[in-house]
Amino acid sequence: MMTEKKKVIIDTDPGIDDSLALMLAGKSNNLDILGVTIAAGNVENQQCTQNALDVLHLIERDDIPVYTGATKPLKREPINARETHGSNGIGNVELEHSKRQAKTGALEFLKTTLEQNPGTTLIALGPLTNIALLLEKYPEVKENIKELVLMGGTYKSHGNCSPVAEFNFWFDPDAAKYVFENLNKPITMTGLDVTRKALLTPNYAKLIKNFDTKLADTIYDMTQFYTDFHWDREGVLGCVINDPLAVAQVIDPSICTGINGNVEIITDGPAIGMSMVDTEGILNKEDNCYILTNCDHKRFFKLFMKTLFPEKEIEIDKILDNELYGN
Ligand code: BDR
Ligand code: CA
Predict the structure, then answer these.
(1) Buried (b) or exposed (e) across 203-222, using 16+ Cβ within 10 A?
(2) Candidate from 83, 123, 168, 236 with most ligand 1 atoms within 8 A of CB, to mutate
(3) Best mutation site among 16, 55, 243 for ligand 1 pocket (most ligand atoms within 8 Å of CB)
(4) Pocket residue to mutate for ligand 1, from 13, 130, 164, most atoms within 8 A of Cβ
(5) CA pair distance 270, 165, nearest whole angstrom
(6) DSSP code of residue 197
(7) pLDDT digits (tens, 9 = 90+) for 173-226
(8) What's the rounded Cα separation, in Å, for the pair 289 and 128?
(9) Alpha carbons within 13 A on the beta-carbon side of 105
């Protein structure tokens, strides 16, 4: 029996891991992607937009509309993440350019598409600027949002921009705060607690390379920059591919599990960008988030690789299940 595809809109700032997330979503048989909206984040909006168009072109999904959105955070000055993602945001890999142009007007696209598609899931993989602006300008559309599954924040794991702040919330803390306070729909926070468990190890990267397709080579090349960054910065061998985990969680909500709680975003001072999580009712505030804390990383990587390389399904199962060689 065919299950109905989930309607999703992806808001993103590609980004190496955003690009992997677009590949996963675009090749999944479980998702109906109504559109992609772009926020500034890892690099400037224009470059993020070009990257989204080119990644969708690579996976032959030129049918998915792409809309440019916010060019800067609500209040702060933008600070890019070229050090992590390379000068072009995708690990300095040169992709064949799509012949398409993105459209302008992400907010109007979001409004109209949500009006026409009640029950849509929003997947946010970058700073929450576009989502905050949407809720502020068109608060009525939230009735049509089923849920927001986002990559951002952290609970017990340390931050990646300060000891307590994760990049997406740190880049635009005011937007993140606005969304947590105003959405009033289920929010799933795929933060660093779980994404750090989804480490694309050198073994996994080489396995993908061995699949020997254009897509495999691109993933391998893009993630080399990211891997070098992780080694230099954190002494970690491999790279944490955050954003595809949020997409995977929409495809299969049992990949990660978590805990309900209240999340408040700190917007100034030394803890700016922190997602302060209260799961004990200490603040007497209502739960506004499902915070993911555990991740079955092997199931995630199986889903990721099998969706991207369905022709290699048997090999992927065989290799990832082979405990003998320490997977
Ligand atoms: C997040 O920040 C960005 O650099 C990544 O694309 C991801 O969305 C991780 O903190
Ligand atoms: Ca991102």
Answers:
(1) ebbebbbebeeebbebbbbb
(2) 168
(3) 243
(4) 13
(5) 10
(6) T
(7) 999 999 999 999 999 999 999 999 999 999 999 999 999 999 999 999 999 999
(8) 15
(9) 6
* Ligand 2 centroid from CA 18, angstroms: 5
Helical spans, DSSP H, in the chain: 16-27, 45-58, 82-85, 106-116, 129-137, 167-171, 173-182, 192-195, 202-210, 214-234, 242-251, 297-308, 313-320
Letter for the amino acid at 229? F
Separation between Cα atoms, residue 54 and residue 15, nearest integer Å: 12
Q: Please give all residues whose beta carbon lies within 6 A of any atom in ligand 1, as ranges.
A: 15, 17-18, 42, 81, 84, 125-126, 151, 160, 166-168, 242-243
pTM of the model: 0.97
What phi and psi values does residue 8 have, to the nearest 5 degrees? -135, 155
What is the secondary structure of 148-174 as a DSSP string?
Answer: EEEE---SSS--SSSSSB-HHHHHSHH
CA of 190 to the centre of ligand 1 (A): 11
pLDDT tens digits, 156-177? 999 999 999 999 999 999 999 9
The residue written with tokens 């945001």 in the block is: 89
Angstrom distance (rounded) from CA 292 to CA 311:
31
Q: Which residue ranges form the domains of the chain, and what is each CATH number?
A: 6-320 (3.90.245.10)
End-to-end CA distance of the chain: 33
Helix 202-210 vs helix 214-234: crossing angle, to nearest 10? 170
Which amino acid is residue 9, in one-letter code?
I
In the block, residue with structure tokens 């890019």 = 80
